[in-house]
Amino acid sequence: MKRLFFLIFILSLFSSTMSWSVQTTATTETQATYRDIKQTLGIIPTFLKQYPEAGISGAWLDMKGLQLNPMSTLPGKYKELIGLAIAAQVPCRFCAYFHTEAAKLNKATPLEIKEAIAMAAGVRRWSTFLTGVQIDVGEFRSEVDKMLMYQNKHKNLQAMEIEPSLDEVKITTPGDVYKDVKAQMGFVPNFITQYPKISIVGAWKEMKGIEMNPESEIPGKYKDLIGLAVSAQIPCQYCVYYHTQSAIMQGATKEELAETAALAGTVRAWSTVLNGLMTDEKQFQGEVNQIMKYLKSKMGKEVGLSN
């Protein structure tokens, strides 16, 4: 009996020692994480202090490894415009403010910021419509492949001056839209014919003016990556397919596609945390301003949110 009690005592002592060791390790890692956050951002934002200590190390490493990493495949400016586009349509006022200020820090222009937001709005519009009218997914993908193949072929011919560029045409009726769509895509896709005729003129002109505009401030590849990020977290299988294939056609790499999708997840995750904690908006904006001021002072000296 004495041996049994002794064995129980030893096991209990071992268990307590192990528990203490794990807690000590976790506490040490957490403190190291807080030090790194302060060194990187200048302060430890309140929402990071409020995040569960058991997960803060991993959450911070994930954020720092991609979103805050100047060595990522995606340039800093476009990461922040992607973040802003996602935040705008979540919608999350916290993330929208942070990514707007971070985009400005990365020298994004007012027009680029507006275009990123407009791209997000356009993706939400077409995602809602495609899902609502229940377009056949297989048919949609086939039409996207056909459309992009046509556009790529004629883009190359125009670049070699074998074929003239398309002239801008006046669009005032649904008939004008279908004629222009056929000239741009080689045919009129089913999702275009199903869109209400009473508003297709405006919808098509908006799409051409923002998403399909080769003269936009944001290059085509990055507009499609914005589209992919937004559609990935809606989620919309139609838009994910279109923007992935279109981005690839414009030179997007596997790494850029993966980083884009990961960024979409990161923004959604922190939006959830910030809103779930009912973070004080004025306090949050004040802390963001402190972070941006600190990073700006460190430009050219230390790694921050800059390219």
Please characterize this protein's 3D structure.
The protein has 307 residues and is mainly alpha-helical. Helices cover 73% and strands 0% of the residues. It has helices spanning 2-41, 46-50, 53-65, 76-89, 93-105, 110-132, 137-159, 174-185, 190-194, 200-209, 220-232, 237-249, 254-276, 281-298. Helix 4 crosses helix 11 (220-232). The radius of gyration is 25 Å and the shape is elongated. The model is unreliable at 6-11 and 16-23 (pLDDT under 50).
How would you summarize this macromolecular structure in one to three sentences?
This protein has 14 helices and no strands. It is mostly helical and 307 residues long. It is elongated.
What labels describe this entry?
307 residues; mainly alpha; 73% helix
Helix content: over 70%
Number of H- or I-type helical stretches = 14
Q: C-alpha Rg, in Å?
A: 25 Å
Could you give the count of β-strands? 0
Mean pLDDT score: 89
**Strand portion:** under 5%
Global outline:
elongated
Distance between the termini: 70 Å
Query: What is the succession of H and E elements?
Result: HHHHHHHHHHHHHH
Which structural class matches the secondary elements? mainly alpha
Low-confidence stretches: 6-11, 16-23
Q: What composes the largest sheet?
A: none
